Amino acid sequence: MNKTYAVLALIAAVVLGVYNVLPNRYFSESVFPLAAESSVIAYDDLTDGGSSSVEFNLQDSLLDFSCILGGNSAKAAWCGLLFDLNKAGGEEALYRNWTFVDSVVFDMESYGTGEVLVKIWTFDPDVTDPKVAKTFRLLMKELPLTSGRQRVALPMEQFYTPDFWYKDAKVDTTLNRRHQETVARVEIAPGWNQPKGKKFGLKIYSVSAIGVSNLFFGIVLFIMVVLMIIAIGRRHSLHKNENGN
C-alpha cells in the first residue's frame, strides 16, 4: 500500500514539475490591423434619412475616421466603425473564439470626444439569426478617452449586455449567457453624450484581444483529482480487506 502511495506521489510531483516549466499560453488576436479575411467599414445614417457624415481612410497600419452627427435634435443620429471578424458569412464555427480573452486593448488617437462605445457582437445559438444583425448578442462598454494618442485596455469582465438589447431583439432577460467564445463583430460608436454637429475623430493604430489560457492548469487539476480518487479508492479497498468484507 505504501508503494502505491509513493508511486502516486511521484506522479503528482512530476506533473507539478512539468507544469511549472511550461510557458503560459498567451492568446492574442488582432482586430486591427486586419487579420486574414476580416474587414472594416464606416457607416452613417444617410440611408435612413439622417444627416450625419463620416470621413474614412484605411491604410495597412492606420485607420483614420471622423464623424459629425446630424444636427436635427428631433431625430436620432448615428455613425461608427464596424469590424467584421466572421471568416465566411454565417456559420457559427467560423466566428472568432475569444474564450481566453481577458482584455481588449486599443492604441488610438482621438479629438473632439471624451468617450466612445465599444460593442462586441457575439453569436448566441438561442437567439441569433445570422441574417438579422440585431439578434447577435451585444456586449458593450464605454471607453473614456483623452485628447492625443493613448493605449487603453478594457477588461472583458466589464462588458455588459444593455437592457435595450433585450427589448430590441425580443429576448428573455433570463437568457444572459455572454457567449464570448463566438465573436462576430467589433463596433466603435460615438459616446452617449457626443454633441450633434460637432466633429470628432479617431486615428486607430491597433485593436487587439489578449489573454492567458487556463488550459494547462485545468489539465493539471484533472490529473490531480484522478490521482486523489485512485488513492481514496485504494484506501477504501484496503479497509474492506482488513474487515473481511
Question: How would you describe this protein?
Answer:
By secondary structure, the chain is α+β, with helices and mostly antiparallel strands. The chain contains three helices and eleven strands. The strands form two sheets. Strands 1, 3, 4, 6, 9 and 11 form a six-stranded antiparallel β-sheet that branches. Strands 2-5-10-7-8 form a five-stranded antiparallel β-sheet, with no helix packed on it. Helix 1 packs antiparallel against helix 3. The longest helix has 28 residues, at 215-242. The two termini are 18 Å apart.
Explain the layout of strands and helices:
Layout: H1 2-21, E1 26-32, E2 39-44, E3 53-58, E4 63-68, E5 79-84, E6 103-111, E7 115-122, E8 137-144, E9 148-155, H2 163-169, E10 183-190, E11 199-212, H3 215-242
Antiparallel strand pairs: 1-11, 2-5, 3-4, 4-11, 5-10, 6-9, 6-11, 7-8, 7-10
Helix pairs in contact: 1-3
Number of helices: 3
Poorly predicted regions:
none
Derived from helix and strand composition plus strand pairing, the structural class reads alpha+beta
Rg, alpha carbons? 25 Å
Oligomer: single chain
Could you give the order of the helices and strands? Answer: HEEEEEEEEEHEEH
- Summed over residues and divided by their number, the pLDDT gives a mean of 84
Total beta strand runs: 11
| First-residue to last-residue Cα separation | 18 Å
Helix content: 10-25%
Main sheet attributes: strand count, strand direction, barrel closure: 6 strands, antiparallel
Envelope shape: elongated
Residues in β-strands, percent = 35-45%
